[in-house]
Design a protein that fits this description.
There is one protein chain. The chain has 248 residues and is an alpha/beta fold. It contains 8 helices and 12 strands. The chain is 39% helix and 17% strand. The strands form 4 sheets. Strands 2-1-3-4-5-10 form a 6-stranded parallel β-sheet, sandwiched between helices. Strands 6-9 form a two-stranded parallel sheet. A two-stranded parallel ribbon has the order 7-12. The longest helix has 22 residues. It binds NADP nicotinamide-adenine-dinucleotide phosphate. The site of NADP nicotinamide-adenine-dinucleotide phosphate has 26 residues, from helix 1, helix 4 and strand 4.
Length: 248
């Protein structure tokens, strides 16, 4: 199976490439040869690669920067995903689009795939939600909502009152690689790929035992209470894929 990956130099993409390379034929052109905002070069790359799957992980991810430069964020996240959809249509590929838990408001947590998203808390989240709708325009698509942190906890403190199902990128990436490798056989249109609900402090302590507890009330921006995703559907699917005769 041939997989065209965008965003291969990013935090998630750089974890995904070696994982995907062991089971699929991966093409991961960098931005210099495949700028996702240029439709023609995206379509050409997909057709030349004869892609069966386009794993679209490229995005404008600077949440604070997006408030200052909305045009740049919209161009990469919305126009770039429209172009990914056009590229998938052009070569008959399935589009696996990487999205975020930020499409939910984050007041109650436990969000399932079918729950109504929004309202959103920032411009980045708005573009990611609109991008999901762009991805849905493709005949065959799979929207993967996820959330992850770098391999090492980067701060001295972590919030005890903010709940999430995110995990470290090296924990999440193998699951997303498995989704991509099995994408043609997955019937769902949306999948939540994350781990169990926990506080951000609890997550931080796993890799930074000395991290200090803090409250999100101290943060300079308003933060949600609970953005955790219901990952039951992915857990069931993963168990099925891992069974003898399964596909993963
Ligand atoms: N980080 C998180 O916590 C988080 C949470 C939920 C969902 N996500 C989603 O997960 C995906 C990957 O995020 P990440 O954290 O790995 O992102 P990242 O580290 O910021 O990397 C972004 C990637 O997109 C590429 N890119 C940006 N603009 C491009 C353009 N015009 N043309 C081609 N490539 C372009 C970058 O290439 P360059 O190296 O050339 O800049 C880089 O490879 C994104 O869809 C993001 O929205 C992230």
């Amino acid at each position: 199976m041939k997989v065209l990956v965008t965003g291969g130099s990013g935090r998630l993409g750089s974890e995904l490439l070696p994982l995907l390379g062991s089971t699929t034929d991966v093409h991961a052109p960098g931005r210099a040869s495949l700028d996702v905002t240029h439709r023609a070069s995206f379509v050409t790359a997909a057709v030349d690669a004869a892609a069966d799957v386009i794993l679209h992980a490229a995005a404008y991810t600077d949440v604070a920067g997006a408030e200052r430069d909305r045009d740049a964020c919209w161009l990469v996240n919305v126009v770039g995903t429209r172009n990914a959809a056009a590229a998938a249509e052009a070569c008959g590929a399935k589009l696996v689009h990487v999205s975020t838990d930020y499409v939910f408001w984050g007041d109650r947590g436990g969000y399932a795939e079918g729950d109504t998203p929004g309202p959103v808390r920032n411009y980045y989240a708005l573009t990611k939600l609109v991008a999901e709708e762009a991805a849905r325009r493709t005949a065959r698509h799979l929207i993967v909502r996820t959330s992850f942190r770098p391999r090492q906890w980067p701060y001295p403190r972590a919030f005890t009152d903010l709940y999430t199902s995110q995990d470290y990128v090296d924990v999440i990436a193998p699951d997303i690689a498995a989704v991509a490798a099995n994408a043609l056989a997955i019937e769902d249109e949306v999948l939540h790929v994350a781990t169990e609900r926990k506080s951000v402090y609890e997550l931080a302590r796993r890799r930074a035992p000395d991290v200090q507890p803090a409250s999100k009330a101290e943060a300079p921006v308003a933060l949600p209470d609970d953005v955790s995703l219901d990952v039951g559907r992915w857990r069931a699917l993963r168990a099925q894929l891992m069974t003898p005769g399964g596909r993963a």
